[in-house]
Structures are given as C-alpha cells and as structure tokens.
TrEMBL record:
<keyword id="KW-0813">Transport</keyword>
<comment type="similarity">
    <text>Belongs to the TatA/E family.</text>
</comment>
<dbReference type="GO" id="GO:0008320">
    <property type="term" value="F:protein transmembrane transporter activity"/>
</dbReference>
<keyword id="KW-0653">Protein transport</keyword>
<dbReference type="InterPro" id="IPR006312">
    <property type="entry name" value="TatA/E"/>
</dbReference>
<keyword id="KW-0472">Membrane</keyword>
<keyword id="KW-1003">Cell membrane</keyword>
<dbReference type="Pfam" id="PF02416">
    <property type="entry name" value="TatA_B_E"/>
</dbReference>
<dbReference type="InterPro" id="IPR003369">
    <property type="entry name" value="TatA/B/E"/>
</dbReference>
<dbReference type="GO" id="GO:0043953">
    <property type="term" value="P:protein transport by the Tat complex"/>
</dbReference>
<feature type="region of interest" description="Disordered">
    <location>
        <begin position="42"/>
        <end position="75"/>
    </location>
</feature>
<dbReference type="GO" id="GO:0033281">
    <property type="term" value="C:TAT protein transport complex"/>
</dbReference>
<keyword id="KW-1133">Transmembrane helix</keyword>
<comment type="function">
    <text>Part of the twin-arginine translocation (Tat) system that transports large folded proteins containing a characteristic twin-arginine motif in their signal peptide across membranes. TatA could form the protein-conducting channel of the Tat system.</text>
</comment>
<keyword id="KW-0811">Translocation</keyword>
<protein>
    <recommendedName>
        <fullName>Sec-independent protein translocase protein TatA</fullName>
    </recommendedName>
</protein>
<keyword id="KW-0812">Transmembrane</keyword>
C-alpha cells in the first residue's frame, strides 16, 4: 500500500527521459556533479582553515602561559 515500486520508478524515469532528452539530462548530471565537487572542496577548505586557527590559538595560549611564569616574591 505504501512505498514506491520498481515499476513506478521505471515509468517516472522513462517520462523524464522523454521530456528532457538525453543531452539535457547529461548536462544536468554534469552540472550537479561539478556543484557537489565544489561544495565538498569548500567544506574541506573550511575544515582545514578551522584546524589551522585552532592550532594558532593553542600556540598563543601556550606562549602566554610560559610568559606568566611565577616570579620571586619581593622582600
């Protein structure tokens, strides 16, 4: 009663193929693939930039901790 059968998917695929044609579908697939590739590249660049920023913050925090070494009390 629920769900989509294989035959229904095949009929929809044939109708889409007839409406748009193979050339348009090929171009659409190519554009979609290029978009996904660009999105993945942007996400990986953002992730590496975030890791780089985190490393910089850690380095600054460590250098500040070493600068704040306890000094000898004055008498």
């Amino acid at each position: 009663m629920g769900g989509i059968s294989v035959w229904q998917l095949a009929i929809v695929a044939v109708i889409v193929l007839l409406l748009f044609g193979t050339k348009k579908l090929r171009n659409l697939g190519n554009d979609l693939g290029t978009s996904v590739k660009g999105f993945k590249k942007a996400m990986s660049d953002e992730a590496s930039e975030t890791k780089s920023d985190d490393a910089d913050v850690d380095q600054i925090a460590k250098s500040e901790q070493s600068d704040e070494s306890p000094s000898k009390p004055k008498e």
